[in-house]
Every structure is written in structure tokens, then in C-alpha cells.
Amino acid sequence: MTPRETQPRRLETSGGTYTLHEFHLAVAGREWTVLHTGVVLTHEDEAHFLRELRGHLPYGVALWPSAIALAHELAARGVDALAGTSVLELGAGTGLPGIVAASLGAQVVQTDRQDAALSVCRLNGKRNGVEAGIDYRLVDWTDWHDDGQRFDWIIGSDILYGEPMHPHLRHVFQTSLAPGGRILLSDPFRGPSLRLLEALQDQKWSVAGTKWNLGEDEDPRAIGVFELAR
Prior knowledge:
The protein is 32% helix and 33% strand.
């Protein structure tokens, strides 16, 4: 699974100007494309990003492996699982998983706290012809207001790494998941993420997982996709 690059584009934001590249995801006879500042796929890519690029590029606009894995998982579940449902995407970043969900018939709310990320989400929604099925909201988990809206699905890719955010994420899960709803979270098996999942399981959430291997066959990146239900 490798990105197919086209002519780079430029994203103008209040925080700076960034070069955007294109990634193509083809699953089950369908194809989606998203713009991003760079693909962070391998452990080496991630170490380079955190060491050299952090602070220079908005991390949410990079394309992380967990987003690719979650997009695959949603595409594999297909129209039968998603058509006519409501989906809340947390930390949407480039928006790839939510775009896949919208293309499969879901009504999606994509949220992020970075203006640059939401700008790219909008661009990517238009590129894939699903902007009419997506609502874009600038929100912060630490200031999450319960407006009474409940979602059949809450999805997020690599959003569990920060332990100080865990209480806020729990609040979002508790107040925004509809009765009978499901949560899908993808994660590269980070320690803080697994601790939160174990804590939720201890509190009577059901947690089931699958594993996706991304990248080159000789050095794949393992990503877990975890389904939670109350």
C-alpha cells in the first residue's frame, strides 16, 4: 500500500503555508484520495516526524497509519454496516476514515481542534464528492459540550496516546454514543492506549480487536482496530 503522488499543492493557513501530497486508497473496487503533508507509515517515519518535523508541520495533517487501517476496516464493513447511520469522527486529521464512512452512506461529523486539519478535511471531502454528507466542527475534547446529539458510531485513529486526555475522551464516549452504538478506534498498540482500553473493559465496556499490517511485507506496521460497546 503506497501513496501515488501527483503535483504537490499548497495549503495556506494562519499558521503557515504547507505543501500537500496525494494518497490513493483502493479497497474492494473503490478508490479514495486524500491530501496530506506527508505519510507517516513506518517506525522510522514516525521517529523522523517527531524528531525533525514536530513543531514545523501540523501533526494532524500528516497521514498516519492508524487512519489508513481504520479506513480499511470501515471499507471492509461496507454499506450494510454504515448506510443510514450517524458517525462522529474525533481528531479527524486528513479525514480519510470519515470520508470512507460518508461514501458508504453515513452522515458524518468530522471534528478536530486544528484549523489546518479541518481545512484539509474539507478539501478531501470535495475531492471525494462526499462534502454534502459531512459536517465539519472545530472542537476541543477538554471543552466538549453535550448538545444532545448521539451517534451510531464514534471513530478515531491514533487518538488515545495522551493519558491526560483520557478523562475527556471518556466523557465524549459517554455523552455522544447512541444506545446500541459502537466505537471504532485504531491504534499502533501504544502503551497508554492499551491501558485506557483495559480500563474501559474493567468498567463493563466490551472491547474486541482486529489487527491490520500496513506497509512493506518485510517490515509491516501492526495497527489494532478496536470495537467498543457498552
